[in-house]
Amino acid sequence: MSDQQFLRAAGKTGGSLSSQLDFLADLGSRLAATDDPSPLLDAAYREMHAHQPAGSTGFVRAVTGLLDLAFANAALRLRLAEQLRAGDSLEMAADLQRSLQPHCAPGQLPIWGVNRPARKLSGDFFDFYPLDRERIAFALGDVSGKGMNAALLMAKTISLFRCLGKRIESPALLLEAINSELCETASRGMFVTMVAGHYRTADGRVCLANAGHQPPLLRRRDRSYQSFPASAPPLGILASTRPADERLELDGGELYVFTDGLTEYRYVSGERLGVEGLIQLIEALAEAPLALRLEALLATLDQDGGWEARDDLTVLAIDDSWVRSDAGIEPAEGVAAHGRGVPAASRPEAAR
């Protein structure tokens, strides 16, 4: 019997309480058994009003309530299905973000980075790769906003850094070129703060440019610190943005580049970590190997459960005193014993 035939028969018999109960029971079972109750619901409303007994307001309310519940359940199932699909999309986007991070084992290079998203997707990013036998390009940035749009803009910025950074020597000119691309295509109101540069392993020299980002910190061997403020606004806002190149010598020291999520990390009480708190953590962990040092830096914040991450946490560091044995790794072929130089397996020509 079709749904319409069933409803007509049930409605025509509907004077007695028992027939009304049978109608509700059969209607309920049919609604529970279907994934799409719309055809049955439409027929139920028509047949109920056409054959309802006189004075059967309770019966009408019962049928209406049952149908409303079925509609609500159908809408809930639809929303859950959409959330599952969105969850799958977010997971795929998160996997894509992870795939864009450098593929390098800890201790292979005198540079390392760590990113901990506050949510599924991160608006922060870092990257580094060897330019030649003695230079390593690096970048770290923070995209405004959250969610999928920020993740897509992050992926585009990393791609531009990878592509243009191999052809443009000056970090300032590189950021200018990335800014030009972002101004043409970025969504209105979105921007990127970014530090980009390159590090010479032979003599510890760094050339970097800063567009609207947190000032990087140079830790010298005597434990004094120097910061390098931004020389231009964030990327994606003004087409004429041109930061300046900043040159420095690490001389056995370390360079730390980080996002504001780290310095704005707060105690539950409201106390902010700040730059001074970050320096204290760096000093407390200064003797650890580079990769372990950065991992421990973030883990230290959570060790007593007293901190809250309100933003993505990202930090990248270059250790000019790096020695490969610090990570328990024997020097690879083509690398001096004291750790200078880009490992042969990491050089662009070695991958060809």
How large, in whole angstroms, is the Cα Rg?
31 Å
CATH architecture of the largest domain: 4-Layer Sandwich
Q: How would you describe the shape?
A: elongated
| Name of the CATH homologous superfamily of the largest domain | PPM-type phosphatase domain
Structural category is: alpha+beta
By oligomeric state, this entry counts as: single chain
Q: Main sheet: which strands, in order across? A: 1-12-9-6-7
DSSP E strands, number = 12
Uncertain regions spanning at least 5 consecutive residues:
9-15, 323-340, 344-352
CATH class of the largest domain: Alpha Beta
Q: How many strands, which pairing sense, and closed or not: the largest β-sheet?
A: 5 strands, antiparallel
Q: Any key phrases for this structure?
A:
2 domains, Phosphatase 2c, domain 1, 5-stranded antiparallel sheet, 352 residues, elongated, alpha+beta, disordered C terminus
